[in-house]
Amino acid sequence: MTSLRGKAQTVLGPVEPDCLGYTLTHEHLTMNYSSCFCPPSPGQEALSDGPFEMKNLYWIKQNPYSHKENLLLCEETDAVKEELLHFKAAGGGTIVENTTTGIARDVKTLKKLAEETGVHIIAGAGFYVDSTHSPQTQAMTVEQLTGIIVDEILSGADGTDIKCGVVGEIGCSWPLTASERRVLQAAAQAQAQLGCPVIVHPGRSSQAPGRIVRLLQEAGAKAAKTVMSHLDRTIFDTEELLEFAELGCYLEYDLFGTEFLHYQFQPEVDMPSDSQRIARIRLLIDEGYEDRILMAHDVHTKNRLLKYGGHGYSHILKNIVPKMLIRGISQDKIDKILIANPKRWLTFE
Ligand SMILES: CC(=O)NCCS(=O)(=O)O
């Protein structure tokens, strides 16, 4: 328990959770994803190094991780600011910015964006996947990692006094590496000490989410303060999904707007469409999990921005909510998913 009890913590300081409003629980406003570059298919190297052009946009949409410039969301602060103003005009209130150590978190830029747009921005503490862990991170004990995470929440991140308000996204590969396991245990200890929200990026296996939640629980975390991200690309089987839901964590469908034929990180998986995501959410509501569902876009490459012909940060509010209503999901349930559930998760206990 800390003085943050009953509050949510934004990059501008603690706020009353009632003021958060419509909340996207998994986005990035500035990050560098070059560490996850996927070499292009033979013969496509020139496209990979080339600039954004109208005639390349479809290729970039299908191969987002093979276009080098596309991975540099950190270069687009002006465009992101404009988009945050659109998000606010569409009724948006809060964005949880999940960039952690390893993919170029920039809390100073987040603070400036919050000041200039009036959107509440909540920054993430902790570490991304193992391939981005520094040798120092790899060598740390759970206690040392816990100390860093707690400090990022209580004192400030990256040498600033700008404080994080969630732990994560904590990056996990499949299978989990030893360093990732220690980071998860540290996230759990930070949660036990501070009562803070935690959010996890699972490895690409349907077994990963369950393993992670159990590991967190064994290390002292509460499933009810934990979000499992990227379920859209991770659990496809209905029985497996409902079994996982029983563990009691938040179930996040956060790749809205991502529609492609070929999922570069895992070609054997068919990335669902937005309509299929809505159908999964409908199923979870029908099965009684409406208090556990969260939604977001996880914008993390340039091509997802309006500036590059993408869907932007307002896609859920402008396009997905109307479609959810058409599919029989009531406004009351939508408000649970986009307001009440994020608020409960983001409030420190
Ligand atoms: C930034 C990030 O981790 N995005 C997730 C991409 S994935 O394809 O869902 O793993």
UniProtKB/TrEMBL annotation:
Alphabetically sorted, this entry's keywords are: Hydrolase, Metal-binding
- Pfam families per UniProt: PTE (PF02126)
Q: Signal peptide position in this chain?
A: none
The residues listed in the UniProt record as binding a divalent metal cation 1, with positions renumbered to this chain, are H26, H28, E169, D298
Top-rank taxon: Eukaryota
Q: Does the keyword Hydrolase apply?
A: yes
Could you give a GO molecular-function term held by this entry? zinc ion binding
Q: Which reaction does it catalyse?
A: N-acetyl-L-isoleucine + H2O = L-isoleucine + acetate; N-acetyl-L-leucine + H2O = L-leucine + acetate; N-acetyl-L-methionine + H2O = L-methionine + acetate; N-propanoyltaurine + H2O = propanoate + taurine
Its cofactor is: a divalent metal cation
For the ligand (a divalent metal cation 2), the binding residues are E169, H201, H230
For this protein, the record's InterPro entries field holds:
AryldialkylPase_Zn-BS, Metal_Hydrolase, Phosphotriesterase
Family matches, as PROSITE patterns = PHOSPHOTRIESTERASE_1, PHOSPHOTRIESTERASE_2
Q: Does the keyword Magnesium apply?
A: no
SUPFAM superfamilies, alphabetically? Metallo-dependent hydrolases
Cofactor details (free text):
Binds 2 divalent metal cations per subunit.
Q: Which family does it belong to?
A: Belongs to the metallo-dependent hydrolases superfamily. Phosphotriesterase family.
Q: What is the protein's name according to its record? A: N-acetyltaurine hydrolase
Q: Which organism is it from?
A: Dryobates pubescens (Downy woodpecker)
